[in-house]
């Protein structure tokens, strides 16, 4: 091989090495951005206004759907069942709430998408990566870009879109506010009062008969309910959960609390059966110590000393019911409990 041939071979090898290095560093060529093609809305104001009205219509439908959501919540009873093909028998409340809320959210999203695709600027721009910490120049550029975006979005020139969008976004959260109402009925003063009142007889829970003092033996534990509360009543469970009463007869000399003695009759004391910890029913009585035990968390109360807490997580004594005997010889209430029954929500009021 001649020296010229050797020189040409080396030159070709160097070119191949250089080309290979370039390909390794940049295996895919940058195709660049395609030429920008204006949309119909960019060159035809009538088309732009049609898109504007379409977006406003979607936002308006969202507002109407939110109003429909609230109206459905108010109009349809919880137990209302309707037949809808092909779903079959469904809850009118669930169907109407889901349908109206879905339409409200969908129309906001569809309106925003249609706005962005037809009226906002769609020209692609290349911005090289930069350091995480922005320089003052970059910050100024960002603010300028933001101002350009606001101007190009036409939000200032198209108040119909702006106002209906703000209206839709402002009304959708009302759906969540209305749902808070479903957390439960407003308690008002229901938790502070029970069915017990002056003159109501104590009815034995087992025999469903009025109690006489001689029916309560020393050391026994008897459960009672207010006169007029029947087990077949629609709200029986709600009422007995507050009015359940336990009656114990203690020797008057063994009662330590003076007020408890005044509120009793011949050693017969009446206390709420509902534990002041989390509201469990108390049913375990130890007659020698006069202690009652809550089976849920072992809170223990001394019925000979104002039902004060002697053990466990309960924070308050059991409420006492003042009792007496009517002219027929039956035990009766002389009022309601001195404090609300159950967990001590009322002390944080």
Automatic annotation (TrEMBL):
NADP as UniProt keyword: no
Cofactor: [2Fe-2S] cluster
Superkingdom, natural source: Bacteria
CDD domains xrefs: Rieske (cd03467)
Record domain Rieske: where: 237-332
InterPro entries linked to this entry: QcrA_N (IPR045603), Rieske_2Fe-2S (IPR017941), Rieske_2Fe-2S_sf (IPR036922), Rieske_Fe-S_prot (IPR014349), Rieske_Fe-S_prot_C (IPR005805)
Compartments (UniProt record): Cell membrane
Protein keywords: 2Fe-2S, Cell membrane, Disulfide bond, Electron transport, Iron, Iron-sulfur, Membrane, Metal-binding, Oxidoreductase, Respiratory chain, Transmembrane, Transmembrane helix, Transport
Name recorded for this polypeptide: Cytochrome bc1 complex Rieske iron-sulfur subunit
